[in-house]
Amino acid sequence: MIQITYYVATSIDGYIAKKNGSVDWLSSVEMEDEDYGYSDFYTSIDGLLMGRNTFEKIQESGEWPYGKKACWVWSSEILKSKPCSVTETNLSPQKIIEKAKKKGLQNLWLVGGGKLAAEFNYKIYYFHYSCNTGTRYTANLWHTI
Prior knowledge:
Enzyme class: oxidoreductase
InterPro entries: DHFR-like_dom_sf, RibDG_C, Riboflavin_Biosynth_HTPR
CATH architecture: 3-Layer(aba) Sandwich
Organism: hydrothermal vent metagenome
Pfam family, one: RibD_C
Radius of gyration: 15 Å
GO molecular function: 5-amino-6-(5-phosphoribosylamino)uracil reductase activity; dihydrofolate reductase activity
Distance between the termini: 6 Å
Helix content: 10-25%
């Protein structure tokens, strides 16, 4: 069984990023020395799913932060440069889940992209999001894939 977690920071009104794609607003609400459970969460996942815009924003920040964890990026265009662990795709979520199962992966992180989250809507096992300073909400969705 694969579990997909949508772990995301959001504004109180449900926005992930500004219109220009920036998430710089996060730094204004972060508490020093608080990782909001990220370290524990990150060690629990073995693969990532993200949209092209999210991928490009991460690439802009410099070094790829996810090491060799398998990662699928949804894009209709060829990615200019990518780490070796990244696979670009335009396959359906179900097809990628099947590929992840064949690789023996069990816990996937849906990193970002509202459009991609909508595509995975009924496949997400956990919603884990930070909303407002120091507050975390987690919703467990009990269906197996």
